[in-house]
């Protein structure tokens, strides 16, 4: 691919750097598309760090409704919420992912039915395409997609850490 040269007349160093970043993303996007399959992640912020969950594991996203605390629940359980006529367990994944607990403004409802699970997150960032990695699953690993770095979280391993063993039916 041949790109037109950057003419620096009238551009400061920041403007040139921005043009170069855009070109780098375009070239990386072409390389990702041609080299290997990709996966789509729902990006969210947790404790000031960008994370992503595979979009096929996400049922819905919503604002955090009123949370009802559960006495003697697991440490990461923020409480339960009413969502679309169902009771959903709202977990704070920051405790498991070693992040600072922030003020949750959104929740990600996972495709896990028994019991229903939602994750409290600081903010939703959008959707990111990353190269699909066939490495063995880990709780989290650094990935890069659409020009940004984020930590990809494996939902199955996260659920295993959040839920007591007796409740892991789904």
What do you see in this structure?
- The structure is a single chain.
- The protein has helices spanning 13-35, 155-162; strands at 38-46, 49-54, 58-63, 77-83, 86-91, 106-113, 116-121, 123-131, 140-145, 148-153.
- With 170 residues, the protein is an alpha+beta fold.
- The longest helix is centred in the N-terminal third of the chain and has 23 residues, at 13-35.
- It is elongated.
- 25% of the residues are buried.
Largest sheet: 5 strands, mixed
Strand content: 35-45%
- Stretches where pLDDT is under 50 for at least 5 consecutive residues are none
- The gyration radius over C-alpha positions equals 19 Å
Task: Report the structural category.
Answer: alpha+beta
Share of helical residues: 10-25%
Shape: elongated
Number of extended strands:
10
Q: Kindly report how far apart the N and C termini lie.
A: 48 Å
Oligomer: single chain
Along the chain, the helix and strand elements come as: HEEEEEEEEEEH
């Amino acid at each position: 691919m041949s790109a037109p040269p950057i003419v620096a007349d009238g551009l400061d160093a920041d403007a040139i750097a921005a043009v170069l970043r855009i070109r780098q993303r375009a070239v990386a996007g072409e390389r990702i598309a041609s080299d290997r399959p990709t996966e789509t992640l729902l990006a969210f912020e947790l404790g000031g760090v960008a994370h992503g969950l595979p979009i096929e594991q996400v049922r819905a996203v919503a604002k955090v409704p009123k949370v009802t605390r559960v006495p003697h629940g697991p440490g990461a359980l923020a409480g339960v919420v009413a969502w679309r006529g169902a009771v959903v367990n709202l977990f704070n994944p920051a405790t498991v992912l070693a992040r600072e607990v922030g003020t949750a403004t959104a929740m990600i409802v996972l495709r896990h039915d028994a019991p229903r699970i939602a994750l409290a997150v600081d903010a939703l960032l959008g959707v990111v395409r990353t190269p699909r990695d066939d490495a063995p699953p880990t709780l989290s690993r650094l990935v890069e997609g659409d020009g940004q770095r984020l930590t990809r979280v494996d939902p199955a391993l996260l659920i295993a850490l959040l839920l007591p063993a007796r409740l892991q039916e789904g």
